Every structure is written in structure tokens, then in C-alpha cells.
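hey m, so remember when u said the C-alpha cells were messed up on ur end? i reran from scratch. heres the input so u can diff it against urs
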Amino acid sequence: MEYLIGVLLALAVVGSAAAIGFDRGRAFYPTVSIVVASYYVLFAVMGASPRTLGVEIAAASGFSLLAVLGFKKNFWLVAVALAGHGVFDLLHPLLIENPGVPRWWPGFCLAFDGIAGAWLALRLMSAGRTSTQPGVLAKP
């Protein structure tokens, strides 16, 4: 059920962002990526050890850095950050013991991140522009 909810919520978020025009600015998807990466830090604050908190901060910092680099240099890195975080969600329970993470979260977040990353990749492919141009998703 968490996968279905993740897919539906991601479609609602990216679909409404496109319809409203939120995603015309280059900051929308990098911001989504940074926020998504920060949730494991929140869960660590709620119920994990200081060591786990440090590991989660390091992981979130890596995804955030990728989103910032994508914003500044090549927007494809933002799509990689979103989709890559989905892979991280899949592996998270195997790599990091964080008792603050709800049981259903990795599946939900995997679905959300995968859809958001794929959506952005499709938008970039259909934009017909180089990924480094400002306003790459802006309608002409």
C-alpha cells in the first residue's frame, strides 16, 4: 500500500507542479530533492543514536550537494539525485539502522522518488534544450 500511495502522491505533486507552473523555475526539483533527503535526518532525531544521526546527515548532505550541483551545472544531476534517493530508500534498511524510520517509509519514499526522478527525466528529454540552460522547463 505504501508503494501505491507514494506513486499517487508523486504524480499529484509533479503533475500539479507542471500544471500550475511551479516547475518552470529551476529551483523546484532541487528543493524537492533536498527536502526528500532530509526526512531520514528527521527520523534519526526522533529515535536514533547520535552516530546514526551523523550517518543520516552525511547521506542527506550528499544528495543535497548533488541537487545543488545539478541546479548550478547540469540539471540532469537533479534527476539523478531524485532517482538515486529512491535506490537509497530501497537499500536504507540494509545499510543504516534507524529506529525512527516508520516501517512503511522506505517503500513509500522509493515510489515517490522514482516517479519524481523519472518525471523530471522525461521533462528534460522533451524540453528539447540543453540541460544547463536557465529555465530549462519553462514554456517558451
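this time it looks ok to me. The helical segments are 2-20, 28-47, 50-72, 76-95, 105-127. if urs says something different then somethings off w ur setup not the seq
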